[in-house]
Amino acid sequence: MPTSTWTRHHVLSLADFTAAEYDIVLQTAASFQEVLSRRTKKVPALQGQVVANLFFEPSTRTRSSFELAAKRLSADTLNFAASTSSMTKGETILDTAKTYLAMGTDIMVIRHKEAGVPNAIAQEMDRLGVRVSVLNAGDGQHEHPSQGLLDLFTICSLIDPANPRLELLKGKKIAIVGDILHSRVARSNIWSLIASGAQVHLAAPPTLLPKFFAEYIFEDEPVPPGQLFIHWELEPALQNADFVMTLRLQKERMTAHLLPSLREYHQLFGITRAKLQRCQPNVKVLHPGPVNRGVEISSDLMDDPEFSLIQSQVTSGVAVRMALLYLIGSGKT
Ligand code: NCD
Questions:
Q1: Based on the domain organization, do 119 and 156 belong to the same domain?
Q2: Interval between CA 177 and ligand 1 midpoint (Å)
Q3: Is 144 marked as binding a ligand?
Q4: Is 61 annotated as ligand-binding?
Q5: Are residues 157 and 293 in the same domain?
């Protein structure tokens, strides 16, 4: 497997990922996808290593797939859920992380509702001079790098299953639709899709997609010309799109009434079979889950394997998370 050029110790964001790093993750995930199709689905790659899943926020697929990925690599796994931990007795996040460090944890997979928590823990581990890696499993509205990578893998391996690679997306039109303002998934996907040379079209009502969103996320860098477009209507984003990524309305992050009603939202921005008529004939739809059925996507479309990649995103998640754990963990032994 192509680990020789992998030097990254933590995976906190896709903002600074290089094209070579995307390709290493895609190739490594493809190898693990093959392993997962065998009768014996386990490899000894991380035997003796400890992977701790520190989830300070609820999760179904991300937490379970990191756990399964670690187990398939023969690592020992520790699972933590904030609601049943000593945090209810007042222990701080950093002290919780140090507790797992003292037990010999090699990789911490961290999800938190506040942006920047995985970065802060990674900095603290570096300051302590310990070889513990941190994987960001979603921090507030900031980033969700493993989701961005599994979405990329799902799309690239649909185009070329034998050799998924970044350049396959060059020139493809990808619409990202929904609650972009509150979405860490959208941010991570924007970085990977822009890096691939795809055209990214964001569509949402203005309350969920501010006018200067692109300038805001690119901060001091120029927004790549001809690659990122903002629409307050759905139709121009869907026109000839190759892939449509829908996003959940993040009601838990909305501090004000940003939408008149869910019904109106579905009428204007919900993805349905009829609206897909504007896209390329073989268009595919993605959603990171969990889904509000009948809101961001119609229930029948969600379950239609001709259009929906939702189940294969979940399947890809295990192989991609195996790849990340392996690439980071194999540098430790
Ligand atoms: C996403 C998340 O938690 O950011 N879900 C996921 O990880 N599969 C998206 C969401 O919660 O809407």
A1: no
A2: 14
A3: yes
A4: yes
A5: yes
Is the distance from CB of 178 to CB of 249 less than 8 angstroms?
A: yes
Whether 10 maps to a domain, the answer reads: no
Structure confidence at residue 252 (pLDDT): 76
pLDDT tens figures, 17-37: 999 999 999 999 999 999 999
Count of structural domains within the chain: 2
What range does the domain containing 286 cover?
145-313
What is the structure's pLDDT at 258?
Answer: 78
Dihedral pair phi/psi, residue 121, rounded to 5°: -70, -40
Distance 289 CA to ligand 1 centre (A): 6
CATH number of the domain within which 65 lies = 3.40.50.1370
d(CA 132, CA 125): 6
113 and 190 share one domain: no
Would you say 172 is a known binding-site residue?
no
Domain shared by 31 and 82, yes or no = yes
Residue 287 resides in a domain: yes
Same domain assignment for residues 151 and 277: yes
Closest residue by CA, ligand 1 atom 1: 288
Which of 59-63, 138-142, 157-161, 211-215 has the least mean pLDDT?
Answer: 211-215
Pocket of ligand 1 (CB under 6 A): 61-62, 138, 144, 147, 184-185, 248, 250, 288-289
Residue labelled with tokens 């570096």 = 126
Distance in angstroms (rounded) separating the CA atoms of residues 183 and 191: 13
Mean pLDDT for all residues in the chain = 94
Q: Whose CA is nearest to atom 12 of ligand 1?
A: 248
Q: What is the position in ligand 1's atom list of the atom closest to the CA of 250?
A: 12
Nearest C-alpha neighbor of 321 from the set 99, 112, 45: 45
The pTM score is: 0.96
**Spatial strand order in the sheet of 107-112:** 76-81, 50-55, 107-112, 133-139
Same domain, 177 and 281: yes
pLDDT tops 70 at residue 3: no
